[in-house]
Amino acid sequence: MQITLRMKALIAVLFLSLAAHAGAVTIAGKTLADKAEVGGQPLLLNGAGMRSIFFFRVYIGALYLRQPLTAPEAVLADTGPKRIELYIMRHVGADEFMDAFNKAITNNQTPQELQAISARLAQFGRVFRAVGAVDEDTVILLDYLPQPGVTVLTINGRERMRIPGADFYAALLKIWLGSNPAQESLKKAMLGQ
Fold first, then answer.
1. What's this model's pTM, rounded to 2 decimal places?
2. CATH number of 5-190
3. For residue range 41-81, what is the model confidence (pLDDT) as tens digits?
4. Does position 144 have pLDDT exceeding 70, yes or no?
5. Residue 147 in contact with residue 39, Cβ under 8 Å?
6. Which of 79, 85, 103, 140 has the smallest number of CB atoms closer than 10 Å to its CB?
7. Over the stretch 20-37, which tens digit does the pLDDT of each residue have?
8. Of the listed ranges 1-5, 92-96, 144-148, the one predicted with least confidence
9. How is the chain classified by DSSP, letter by letter?
């Protein structure tokens, strides 16, 4: 049996798709673990990529889930623990970070959804501004613990706050996986596509 060029291409795509979920990934010299633990439950690296603006590297974004998922709707519907891991690649002031964060949240929420999380979003902003600027090599973890249903913000290994509500974590996920993501190529990378 002769393998056609089309079959070879399909085999290569299948291999790369499986490889995206098969181990640690190195991006811009940073090696991301292939596994994480959130709330005592093991998670797998779903995908990771670089957020850049023009030629500037801003951060590496990684998504950890219980099982590989490639559709944003499936990730949002998953009720299990999750982790968004951000590796900062350059100095970012607290105001600059929060402005970009708020814009990304607003771009992916209905007015009603935004109203429902506004107090918690303000609390998140106050805590983040109190932390101040983030520098290169800062690691930000946004973990979701389904029991008791909270988002845990950790910066450089230090827990900074817990925010209640699955809707708040869904709003965070939509920054990267929503219909108006921070960067389309990063969305695809985090989804392992």
1. 0.85
2. 3.50.70.10
3. 999 999 999 998 888 888 999 999 999 999 999 999 999 99
4. yes
5. yes
6. 79
7. 444 678 888 888 999 999
8. 1-5
9. -PPPHHHHHHHHHHHHHHHHTSS-EEETTEEEPSEEEETTEEEEEEEEEEEEETTEEEEEEEEEESS---SHHHHHH--S-EEEEEEE-S-B-HHHHHHHHHHHHHHTS-HHHHHHHHHHHHHHHHHHHHH--B-TT-EEEEEEETTTTEEEEEETTEEEEEEE-HHHHHHHHHHHHSSS-S-HHHHHHHTT-
Radius of gyration of the chain (CA): 17
Tell the residue number behind the tokens 């085999």, with chain if given: 11
